């Protein structure tokens, strides 16, 4: 179940995505310009914390002057989580049932993705995922920094790997059990390099985890 904070993050990112496609919208915005990008019902004391979190997850850019803008990764995430075709179909069906605007947001979390175990995208995703998980398991450079979190992340990744043995998967489950943990690990090693903790294995792990994310997104139909 999504926490209240995570649900607000999704709503705010979706609102920023919508605004980015509005004619005359800002290409980037500061905290002082939130009212020009977000509806008033999404502006809270915690909104800045949401924006900072979205930036850390690479869904928003943040330039040196303090201006936010949606990233390519943020655009792909929203288009993944909200199926535009389902949105249009549901709007058409329900507009006559009490929704005057006809704007029904249909999450893609219930979308089932068939898996062809003999296809190249499937083989590539499995190979990339296995290589990334193996490298992460065998690397002990950041053991103190990870603490018990490493085992939890490995359990999630291993559970997601088991899920891929099925003939179809729920898209959002793949995102929750595989793609998000992969990004958490990749980002941790990137931060370590920025902070000066440089090991020979770090660049390889970052590469493997980035490749695994890209391969899984392709498998889910997001290129």
Describe what this molecule looks like in 3D.
Helices cover 58% and strands 5% of the residues. With 223 residues, it is mainly alpha-helical. The chain has two domains: 1-110, Arc Repressor Mutant, subunit A (Orthogonal Bundle); 111-219, no CATH class. It has a two-stranded antiparallel sheet with strand order 1-2. A two-stranded antiparallel ribbon has the order 3-4. A hairpin with a 5-residue loop joins strand 1 (60-62) and strand 2. Helix 5 (120-138) packs antiparallel against helix 9 (200-219), helix 7 (149-163) packs antiparallel against helix 8 and helix 8 packs antiparallel against helix 9. The longest helix has 24 residues, at 171-194.
Q: Could you name the key traits of this structure?
A:
223 residues; mainly alpha; Arc Repressor Mutant, subunit A; 2 domains; two-stranded antiparallel sheet; 58% helix; globular
What's the N-to-C terminus distance? 27 Å
Mean pLDDT: 82
Radius of gyration, in Å, reads 19 Å
Low-confidence sequence ranges: 84-109
> At CATH's second level, what is the architecture of the largest domain?
Orthogonal Bundle
Shape: globular
Task: Count structural domains.
Answer: 2
């Amino acid at each position: 179940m999504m926490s209240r904070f995570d649900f607000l993050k999704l709503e705010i990112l979706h609102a920023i995505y919508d605004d980015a496609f509005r004619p005359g919208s800002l290409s980037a915005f500061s905290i002082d310009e939130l009212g020009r990008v977000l509806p008033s019902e999404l502006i809270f004391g915690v909104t800045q914390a949401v924006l900072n979190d979205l930036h850390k997850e690479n869904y928003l850019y943040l330039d040196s002057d303090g201006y936010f803008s949606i990233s390519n990764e943020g655009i792909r995430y929203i288009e993944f989580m909200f199926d535009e075709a389902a949105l249009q179909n549901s709007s058409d069906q329900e507009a006559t049932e009490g929704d005057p605007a006809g704007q029904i947001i249909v999450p893609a979390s219930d979308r089932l993705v068939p898996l062809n175990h003999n296809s190249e995208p499937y083989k590539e995703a499995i190979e990339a995922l296995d290589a990334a998980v193996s490298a992460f398991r065998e690397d002990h450079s950041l053991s103190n920094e990870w603490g018990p979190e490493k085992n939890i992340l490995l359990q999630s990744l291993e559970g997601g790997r088991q899920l891929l043995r099925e003939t179809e998967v729920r898209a959002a489950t793949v995102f929750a059990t595989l793609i998000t943990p992969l990004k958490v690990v990749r980002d941790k090693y990137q931060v370590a390099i920025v902070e000066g903790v440089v090991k020979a294995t770090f660049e390889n792990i970052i590469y493997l985890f980035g490749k695994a994310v890209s391969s899984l997104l392709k498998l889910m139909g997001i290129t």
